[in-house]
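Q: Given only this backbone (215 positions), what sequence would you predict?
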């Protein structure tokens, strides 16, 4: 059976795995973005706090994915829970770092002007600082998503969802007639999903970032 015949015969399962893979990455990115931006907001005004937040999230990223998931299995079990926790932790660094950089890069004159017209600190943050910091934050989200697309494949080690199951099954059955097809289908599926997500982020950027800020 060649690769195209394999895709045709397994297309329903491939679509299901692709949906699960995209779903878990999307959900983890939503959580990582919320936590990462919040950490950025809480730490960007302080040099040491910002450095601490960046160092801690960077340290989490240095832990091998298999080790991270392996450590989580005795605590939360197999399946979705260790996958979600691991991916969320891995997705924090680019979001936290870019949120801090973006918020620190806002022109102080604009913040002073907002203060001068009577805006509260929360209003300045929501209506002035975060919109101006959004481009680098979105870049951080894009980087995190690309990383998580690949890392999510390792979740198959803990019986997690997604295309990694195809890759692991193919590797485990090397020498069988469909082993290479499974690995190739899983790998190409992840690449296609990563490209689709990135294209979606480009569209979001065009819709949410004004021309003046992009310039």
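A: Predicted residues:
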């Amino acid at each position: 059976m060649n690769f195209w015949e394999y895709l045709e015969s397994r297309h329903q399962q491939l679509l299901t795995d692709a949906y699960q893979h995209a779903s878990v990455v999307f959900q983890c990115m939503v959580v990582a973005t919320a936590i990462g931006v919040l950490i950025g907001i809480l730490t960007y005004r302080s040099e040491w706090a910002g450095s601490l937040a960046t160092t801690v999230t960077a340290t989490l990223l240095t832990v091998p994915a298999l080790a991270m998931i392996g450590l989580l299995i005795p605590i939360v079990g197999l399946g979705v829970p260790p996958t979600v926790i691991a991916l969320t932790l891995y997705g924090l660094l680019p979001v936290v770092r870019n949120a801090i950089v973006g918020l620190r890069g806002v022109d102080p004159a604009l913040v002073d002007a907002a203060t001068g017209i009577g805006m509260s600190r929360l209003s300045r943050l929501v209506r002035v600082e975060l919109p101006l910091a959004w481009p680098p934050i979105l870049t951080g989200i894009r980087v995190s998503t690309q990383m998580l697309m690949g890392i999510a494949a390792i979740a198959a080690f803990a019986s997690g969802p997604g295309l990694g199951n195809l890759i692991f099954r193919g590797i485990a059955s090397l020498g069988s007639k469909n082993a290479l097809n499974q690995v190739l289908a899983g790998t190409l599926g992840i690449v296609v999903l990563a490209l689709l997500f990135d294209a979606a982020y480009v569209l979001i950027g065009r819709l949410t970032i004004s021309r003046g800020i992009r310039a």
